Amino acid sequence: MGQPTLSAHADVPLYSATISPKMAASGRVHLLLLLMSVPFCLCTVQGLKAPSGNGNGLGNPPANPPVPVNIIGAPGPVNNVPVAPAVAAMTQPRRATGWKLAEEQSCRDDLTRICPKHAWSNNLAVLECLQDRKELLWNYKLNLTMDPKFESVAMEICKSTITEIKECSEEERGKGYLVSCLVDHRGNITEYQCHQYITKMTSIVFSDYRLICGFMDKCREDINTLRCGSINVGEKDIHSQGEVIACLEKALVREAEQQDQAHPIREECKKSIMRVAELSSDDFHLDRFLYFSCREDRERFCENTQAGEGKVYKCLFSHKFEEAMSEKCREALTTRQKLITQDYKVSYSLTKACKADLRKHRCNLDTNMPRAREARLSYLLLCLESAVHRGRTVSEDCQGEMLEYRRMLIEDFSLSPEIVLHCRGEIETHCSGLHRKGRTLHCLMRVGRGDKGSTVDGLCQSALQTLIQSADPGSDYRIDRALNEACESVIQTACKHIRSGDPMILSCLMEHLYTEKMVEDCERRLLELQYFISRDWKLDPILYKKCQGDAARLCHTHGWNETSELMPPGAVFSCLYRHAYRTEEQGRRLSRDCKVEVQRILHQRALDVKLDPDLQKRCLTDLGKWLYDKTGKEQRRNSSMGSQSRGGKNREGTLECLQDHLEDLLSGCGEVVGNLTELQSEDIHIEALLIRACQPVIQSHCHDVSDNQVDTGDVMECLVQNKHQKEMNSKCTVGVTHFQLIQMKDFRFSYKFKMACKEDVLKLCPNIKKKVDVVICLSTTVRNDTLQDVKEQRVSLKCRKQLRVEELEMSEDIRLEPELYDVCKTDIGRLCSNVVFGNAQMMECLKERKKQLSQQCHQRVFKLQEGEMLDPELDYQLMRVCKQMIKRFCTDVDAKNMLQCLKQNKNSELMDPKCKQMITKRQITQNTDYRLNPILRKACKADIPKFCQPILNKASDDSELEGQVIGCLKLKYADQRLSPDCEDQIRVILQESALDYRLDPQLQIHCAEEIPGLCAEEAVAQEQTGQVEECLKANLLKIKHDLCKKEVLNMLKESKADVFVDPVLHTACALDLKHQCAAVTPGRGRRESRPPVCSQPMTWGYIYLLHHLSVHRHRI
């Protein structure tokens, strides 16, 4: 084929060519396609010098060069536009062979500055590079698009296409609308020649906004108002037309962000702007401003990316925040991204990839929604995400495009006009200079959480929540680049078993929160994101997938991409977890799969109180009142629990503080804290940090119950029972004890107790809320029924069993009995400050110092001891210290007779010394007051008022009688006036006290000086063989205090009445009693009187007895 020649052909000067016969049939089409090259040449031929000679490829000039003509051949100006001198130059002769436009002097400077070197040898490439350089080009292109004859050519080439496209067939002819319409619908053109033709026309049309169908008419006023540049020819030169469009686009973006309300763009111009952006979406060359702004960046970042189908846009978008990206290009890209957020069709790749899915899932058929909202990127994402979350099919290509744009929204907050508008103040105050890679958004999230000491405006909070829902980072953590980079090391170590991009990655990260594998930056980013995810249950894709049916059935929810003002943040999840723990009797419950996910979320929320929107909202006032003014206390708690929280504001410390002040909370806050605590009692796994701290003891002692899919309070009960095992560490102990203390505030907080006794509480203890009061109420009822031998207990059997468990747990720590603890706090600080709580050690300390206690504390301790003596199983220290001895001696003994059994085996050679010492302590306590000895009290219930009423009249109900009643009964025993049952019990007491003086309170009190003075060695030995008593008897004449003498004489009198009550005497005379007095009934002094039946020779022991009695006979 020969070189093209410039000639006058018919009506218009255009390129001609030597054409082979094979191509003749389609010659007109090729000529028309060549016509598209003319504008590119016209822009730079002005001023070219006409060489002489024959043309060698550009053709010979005609004999009479024609006058400049318009497209239809008429000489003179076109549409009143002056014809530039360059038009005349078009008809000048050119070199025939080897002519290069780049060699012309007038073009050389522009070529060197603007066009890449590899294009210099190609005239057409040079012309394309320089097409926007002169105003003459625009005049010619305007004529080209508006001329009716040119339209007739288009109608001939695209005849079938125009018929198929209804909008184009109806366009008015002669105004350039037909060509513009075909450009608009070029994506639907299937006819090859027409498609080629329109593709060339596109590059012409988009080089100047005034060539676009109706654009100038619709936007003329806005261009002038906004001062976006002149619409008059020649006033602007370099890239002016692209800058006009860019100016309008920026104004449209500002208006969406409500930053520029002074000059709102008219609606018809808005549509034209968006349409231009949409039509230029496939080829970045068509966005002239962006093209010129990003040419160098394109070469730097996207050199190997082919133009077309929006590929260059996508490439540049992905590098937008690179350091090497020019600021001008970054701004142009941001403007285009903002236009995409307003209308997703501005993205060619997204529209193409998701076109079928949008139609399939009816995402653009909502007649109740304004088109502007329907076209928003956020709506498209929400609609298609809804389909994905509901298990519908969305093509991989579409999901890939969605992923890119969701990441784009997270990375650059400015793409969300609501964020820019409503969060401007927060950004300026807290988040300036953090624009790149999503750091601004995370900063706003942190402010929204309240981690910076202030909160965000409600509108800003709503805008953040909307953006998070649109981007949906919960479905793929990689969308959030800041989180991805911060948590990469944690994911590689702790979550490497989970597929990359899987939604479970976030759950895995939450499970490792506050562990050694977690890093601080990841922790912070994770909590910032989870704060917003927790406020919309749909943002957890696994939860939504498993629970959408349950939510619709039980909570009356809307679709995934629908919202309701009647559903506040967290309301749906609150509804779900209320149904998760219902019993079959209580009605509708969650499906098993949904319940598992609800429990997973609850476990995660337990790590940070701010992840519970209902709690944070309703407790805002109380948090300010109780939490922040007790920082030191809170930090100590966090430290003891090992929460590892940065800043001391984690869930454990915050919730614990609220639980501690439960009675003082506002009603709304108290309700939500109470409900949450009640829920914890049923499923302690919700307290993730506690479970983590208690793993060693759970694995060793509670693995059977911890493996159950449903925890009904068994794990916590097991932890309490094993609280003092060697595997129990301090962190776990603190957590378990705190939970026990909180349970005391409301019986509902003990799940097993609540389920076992709720009917009994309603019937027997109505209007009682505190657990300790409920326990006392029910225990009193059980005791009274037992004492009265009623046929049927009022408290149910299942409640009595659980009541026993609660009573045993309460006995372990004085703090679990709030009323006792409150009145004894001062005494504890004064007398037991070095004693640690737990293991009933504090209670034991108070018992041992009972005489030093304040009156109120003393009274409470006495009441407690009275209950323990009535039911020794409640005596935690006794049961703990003597646990093995109970197994050895008292396996089959009823719990209420446990102390009696231990006393009977106290002097056995197999008795453990520590247990023996504990038994002695309890005996000493019992002998201080008959009320602390239930067996004696029952046996002597008639004798006590009969013989000891004066003592009773002086006594109070809650203080010891210091052995006075027992002393009274001892005297009557010696006088042989007691009833047989009472006599038997007093004999036992006399026998025990004869071996250990400490069991005789009156002797201890009245002989307090004599014992250490006369019998110091015997007292220190504490061998419990009666040595102190024998010492006092032997030193009777040395005793100065009459009351002490009286007590010693009473001992002698008691021995005279019955040799069995004096173990020393009985041991000395054992053989004599066996041989001489075996037939004599014990008691009433019969054996000492040596009746006739006892006439055998006496041993030296018996002689000693008679001598001992005769010496002191006159005193007795």
Shape: rod-shaped
**Biggest β-sheet: count, sense, barrel?**
2 strands, antiparallel
> What's the count of strands?
2
Poorly predicted regions are 1-97, 132-141, 231-239, 630-649, 1090-1106
Structural class: mainly alpha
Strand order across the largest sheet: 1-2
Counted by DSSP, the helix tally is: 65
Our measurement of the CA-to-CA distance between the termini, rounded to an integer number of angstroms, reads 153 Å
Q: Report the β-strand fraction as a percent range.
A: under 5%
GO molecular function, one term: fibroblast growth factor binding
Signal peptide: 1-43
Keywords: Glycoprotein, Membrane, Repeat, Sialic acid, Signal, Transmembrane, Transmembrane helix
InterPro entries: Cys-rich_GLG1_repeat, Cys-rich_GLG1_repeat_euk, GLG1
Describe this structure in words.
The chain is mostly helical and 1116 residues long. It is 58% helix and 1% strand. The protein is built from 65 helices and 2 strands. It has a two-stranded antiparallel sheet with strand order 1-2. The N and C termini lie far apart (153 Å). Residues 1-97, 132-141, 231-239, 630-649 and 1090-1106 have low confidence and may be disordered.
